Every structure is written in C-alpha cells, then in structure tokens.
C-alpha cells in the first residue's frame, strides 16, 4: 500500500489501529490535538501531527473519534483557531472512512456533505476492542458503495476482518447498535452472575470456570469475567464510558423506532452508576463494582 493515509484519533484504540496499519507498510500520518497521544505515536515510530494537514494529500482519511460532535468537529475544523476541517482539506476522489460509533444518521449526514466535495465515504465501526486490534481479530462492520469498499479493502484488511453490511451508508452503524445492545446486556449479566456467586459464599474463580464450560457460557463472561475478578487495576480493553455513550445511542435509536428494549435500560443504568463511581475510564468489566454496595 503506497497511498498516503491520514488517521485522525490516536486514543486508546485508535493508536493501536494506526500502528497496525503503519506496520503493514502503509504510509500513515496520525492526527490528534492532544500532545500525549502524539508522543506515544512518535515513540512507536508513527509520524503524528496536531492538525490534519496531511489530509490534503491523503487518498484515504480514517476518523476514529468518540462522538458525533467530535466527528463534526473533525469535518468542519475550528475557524476561531484557524484549524482546517477535513472537508476543506481532502481532495476530490479521496475516501473518508468513519470508524467511530456515532449512529446511522451522523454517518449519513457526513457522507452527504462529503459527496458535495467529491469525497466518497465508508461507514466502518469496529468491534473487538484493543485486544482485538492487538490480536488481529478486530471486526469491521463496513457499509457503503461496493466499489469504494473494494478500493479500500487492502487498507481495512491490514487492521482486521471486514464484515460486509451492505451498500447503504449507515448500516454499519446499525449493525454496531445491535452489537452494543448485546454486549452491554451480556457484560452486566456476567457481572450479576459473579456478584451472586460471591454473595452465596462461593469461590468466584471456580464458578467462572464452571460457567464458562456449561450452557450459561457467553463470550463476554469468558472475556470480561477474569477482569471482573481482577479488580480495579484490570487492564482497560474497553472503558465503562464507551458503554455509557453507546447505550444512550442505542436508546435513542430505539425511541425513534418506537421499540421497547426492556433489557437495555437495566444495562444502561448499571454503566451510568459505574460512571458515577468515577469508573468511566476503567475497564468496562468494572461495572461489577456497582454490586459491591
């Protein structure tokens, strides 16, 4: 891959993704407004800049920010500080890849605005967390025009596995919403189960081993369970704050569709309670701490 790539958003998962892409031989420039992520990128050998100037010569621009508001800021820049936005910088014919979880409408709106500048857009939210990036098992829920997706398959395949979600922009985000509903409920269910085991006076590690070998097994129980038992110092693979954001996003979608998701509010309340305990930046497995009281 010789095409210049700009990767905007060098956070907890963005930086490992950019580094994996860089290690594949791609010419990647990272972008982040904060000095700490840029310093970590530089230490790892990835060129990084505070403003997305490299987007002017990039054939592909990947955005990995946290919220829809941050996506809009990346597209528009900041006229007050003179920071140019991606839509002003990117050349016609370039491809914008939105890998953030921001909801279908946010991506469709971004795609419509980009199209006015002759820029194509792909909607590619991811699932699998930092561990998935490091193991090469990250799953990318890709939607958008098939010819555009085909043109950027080598870029995406350097990061993980592509799941084709169809040509309608925003359907990748819709797939991700379903994913986050399942993940949030499964994590909270695992936390409840292990909390119940503790209250019953059982050895939680023995219970975890027994449950992951039986019909009560779930991927989240097997993955998050050990970190739940490890306590607050468990490594952060995906933060509590991500699920505070994403359960809100799914709830908004459900409200628009007039569908009663009975389990979602229960899971959302637990993640919100964990954030209130100042655990927003801790691993999402630490939602189990809400059962300690």
TrEMBL record:
Start and end residues of each 3-hydroxyisobutyrate dehydrogenase-like NAD-binding domain: 170-291
Pfam families linked to this entry: NAD_binding_11, NAD_binding_2
Highest taxon in the source lineage: Bacteria
Keywords, ordered alphabetically: NAD, Oxidoreductase
Coiled-coil regions, chain positions: none
Listed PANTHER family: 3-HYDROXYISOBUTYRATE DEHYDROGENASE-LIKE 1, MITOCHONDRIAL-RELATED
Family under the similarity heading: Belongs to the HIBADH-related family.
UniProt-recorded name of the protein: 3-hydroxyisobutyrate dehydrogenase
Organism: Brevibacterium casei S18
